[in-house]
Amino acid sequence: MLQRRVLRLGLPGVAGLFALVAAAVTPSLTSAQTPLLEQMSPNQLIGAVIGAVPVQYSGTLVTTSNLLGPASDLLSSLGQSASLPQGTSSEEVYRGAGRELRVQVLDSQSERDLYVNSKTAWIWNSSGSVAREIVGSSPSVVAGALNPTEMADKIVTNLATTSSLSVGANTYVGGQAAYDLTVTPRQAGSMVRRVDIYVDASNYQILGFQVMAVGSSAPALSVEYSQISFASQSSSLFDFTPPSGSTVRTIKLPLSFVGGGFSGKILGTSWDSVVALPQRALAAVLGTAGAGNLTDVETPVSVGGVSAELVRTTLVNALILPNQRVLVGAVTPSVLEADALAEMGG
Predict the structure, then answer these.
(1) Is 188 helix (H, G, I), strand (E, B) or coil?
(2) At a CB cut-off of 8 Å and minimum separation 6, what does 322 contact?
(3) Looking at 198, 217, 252, which one is the last position of a domain?
């Protein structure tokens, strides 16, 4: 039996941080018109992105998630205990000189911000007046991890051998003419049908992405700028001092899964990657009540003669094993079951 490569992984967490991190790399389809642009091959476009000089900008980011698909009804039974992405949200994003970054999330009752400058990195939540300082790595490393160009370099390097690359129809993103770099997995076990990465035609900055799932005509995840402007930003936007009376905490890098200290194990590679977690990690994501209500969407399956429970969504599937392990990945159930046999020693 072919042995899948196993890597150790400390999974990032901290509820609410995911939305802020996602905002640093984003797209948008705001027009059906097709701009006339210089023709580029995938390799030329990737090279332009990797070699691009970071520029300052500001914009309004709209994220639309249908990751849960039919399982979205689960949210109504979980109430406020769930921290799963579903629906639409918006953030204000500011990129300054060097690696300065600010992401601001506003709703009717609270404000959340990520501040990164040359000296510090903070996460602020006005609900409860909690300020969290990110420590254990320099702010420039934090901002660099969120830099679209640097992320593109890593993504292309990791996926090039398992993906087909092409350039689709030109489009507009946040009012900017953009190329569409299309990445199609070549691994049959992936639930990802296609990823479209939108690249600004003037500055070669990554403006966002759209993820299409197998068997679905609508994007499972679409991160779009409704508007974006490439202009200098005031340095004061990226400064933060905890207000008097606020609670100050620290987040140590590397982060642990949802603050719970869980270490995951990655089975497989690239698009066929699966994360193995302890079952108690579900309670950290869904809340204790939510984890208990999973029976509403579980499907009994047999893995090597042993009963297990399968949870299916539009893009990500999960398999709960009798030994309390949970396998999660954007892969087909057959891939999860094959990894489950290996986890159970089958």
Answers:
(1) coil
(2) 306, 307, 308
(3) 252
Provide the number of structural domains found in the chain: 2
In a domain, 258, yes or no: no
If asked whether residues 332 and 280 sit together in one domain, one would say: yes
Residues 294 and 245 in one domain: no
Dihedral through CA 186, CA 265, CA 338, CA 163, nearest 10? 0
Per-residue pLDDT of the chain (346 residues; tens, 9 = 90+): 444 444 333 333 333 333 334 444 444 444 446 899 999 998 889 888 888 888 999 999 888 888 766 555 554 444 444 444 567 888 999 999 888 999 998 777 788 999 998 888 999 999 899 999 988 766 666 665 555 456 556 666 677 789 999 999 999 999 999 999 999 999 999 999 999 999 999 999 889 999 999 998 889 999 888 899 999 999 999 999 999 999 999 987 655 444 344 556 889 888 999 998 876 666 555 544 444 455 556 788 988 888 888 988 889 898 988 877 889 999 999 999 999 988 776 5
Q: Are residues 269 and 159 part of one domain? A: no
Residue 113 domain flag: yes
